[in-house]
Amino acid sequence: MSSLSVITPFDVETIRQDFPALHQMVHGKPLVYFDNAATSQKPSLVIDRIRKYYERDNSNIHRGVHYLSQQATEMYEEARKKIQTLINARQSYEVLFTKGTTEGINLIAYSFGQKWIKPGDEIIVSALEHHSNIVPWQMMCERTGAQLRVIPMNDAAELDMEAYAGLLNERTRLVATVWISNALGTINPVAEMIRMAHERNIPVMLDGAQALPHMQVDVQALDVDFLTFSGHKMFGPTGIGVLYGKEKWLEEMPPFMGGGDMIEKVSFEKTTYNELPHKFEAGTPHIEGGIGLGAAVDYIQSIGYEAIGKWEADLLQYGTEQLLTHFDDIRIVGTAAHKASVISFLVGDIHPYDTGTILDQLGIAVRTGHHCTQPIMTRLGIPGTVRASFAFYNTREEIDRMISGIRQVKKMFKS
Amino acid sequence: MTKPIRDIEAELAEEFSLFDEWMDKYQYIIEMGQALPGLPEADKNSDNIVNGCQSQVWLTARKEGDVVSYQADSDAIITKGLIAMLVRVLSGHRPDEIVSADLAFVDQIGIREHLSPTRSNGLNNMIKKMKYYALALSSRKEEQAL
Which CATH number do you get for residue B9? Predict the structure, then answer.
């Protein structure tokens, strides 16, 4: 951290120099990368850290007496502490490394479910969930006989908080909700949702996959019970993620997977489990992923969430205005009052897939389709959307490129 | 008398060779998609759907005399343009001709490298379903639909 200079004021051109992948031609045009909600690009700091790990530090962690193993262990555990600081967790062992958000959710659904869920119990999710925060709970319900309850949303894609209050009852065992919708950008009022659930002693899990790339997260201030997120969406490597859990829950929950590292003592008669966090980290972990994620945390902190938030809010406002000013048949899907830098839209009656294909030919990377949120699309009665999702390295000029790209799309489809 | 499959493929390849820019090629695919009549709503059902496409694609086939006639539709125009090309190439031929067609034009035009892997996969599934229909119709009498 100390080796990084703090960039003030925010200088996007300097920042863009840190991301090698942004400087390439696609179909003969300079790349405009607007698919950040799917995955972010990586700064050199992260890439170099991973290369250095393989060139110099590679060794298996936690069990070796030799120098390299101790080095690697230290770096991996240091990354855990960086994440602890980033999200303000009370203890570093409340930070579990996973493959990503999806594994974190599956871990809770399995372990929490096995310990505390009985037939007739209820789990609450929201209408804005990614499939990864629906299917694990459905599987858990099938195993345990519990029921899934869904907080509905309005046409602007905001959750119905009165309906939420009505769903919380004595059978509710857990609320598992998305913080920021990947498909539409809605920021859910999670502080309020947690407070309401805690009034009835119901724990809350947040899917924070889209939150960590954009905003400061403080698990103690929120008093959230579980928070899960992915490294690759926050400028870190793929295949690594985090599940934060309050110690009191993690201590009581049974392990998710068995194997090496998660044990204290093994015999064929009985095995006892290791302490936190190792109890939930069976097998050789994604060591360079953890270390790379630690570097990504360093990078984010060198820019600062305040600067990131300001820049992205401008991109969201500018992009929305430009779309609505230049075209009279653009439909913005998801018009919540509180939104992250995601714009989902439809161009006239042109299929999102057609729009995305032509934009791709122009070097503009957007995502098209249902964004792994089929229930949202069904609720809104559309096949999918075109989604432009911005990171702090995007610019107004890139949005202008997208606007002229859409003009060409309309010309080609005569819309 | 319908031209042989290979000749129609050559025609298509030649038409595409007139365009230097990929945007123009896409424009042509879009026009073919817009020109394809499409299917009645009743035929856009799960039996006729082509799996593995990001957009929805429906395909029907019937036998007219000893040849197969295809009808297709999609909710996305570029996809509809792609299947329109396949319909143009394969429709009006005998099942044995359709099943053995190698459809080299797909690679000659260079569509494949300009399609995303999911769409390229979708194109393969369209071809597979068309050949499957031809095979299924080969043993049927005249004027029968699947």
Answer: 3.90.1010.10
Residue A5 has pLDDT above 80, yes or no: no
Domain count, chain A: 2
B17 is catalytic: no
Quote the CA–CA distance of A151 and A250 in Å, as a whole number. 26
CATH code of residue A81? 3.40.640.10
Q: Is A117 in the same domain as A209? A: yes
Does pTM top 0.95 for this prediction? no
Domain that holds residue A279: 48-301
Chain A interface residues facing chain B, Cβ-Cβ under 8 Å?
27, 350-351, 353-354, 357-358, 360-361, 368-369, 383, 408, 412-413
What's the token pair of residue B18? 């007139």
**Residue pair B94/B66 in contact by the 8 Å Cβ criterion:** yes
Interface pTM, i.e. ipTM: 0.89
Unique residue bearing structure tokens 């902190």: A301
pLDDT for the residue numbered B26: 94
Q: What DSSP line would sit under chain B, residue for residue?
A: -PPPHHHHHHHHHHHHHT--SHHHHHHHHHHHHHHS----GGG-SGGGBPTT-SS-EEEEEEEETTEEEEEEEESSHHHHHHHHHHHHHHTTB-HHHHHH---THHHHHTHHHHS-HHHHHHHHHHHHHHHHHHHHHTTS-TT-B-
Q: How close is the nearest chain A Cα to the Cα of B134, in Å?
A: 29
pLDDT confidence of residue A63: 81
Q: A352 to chain B: nearest residue by CA? A: B76
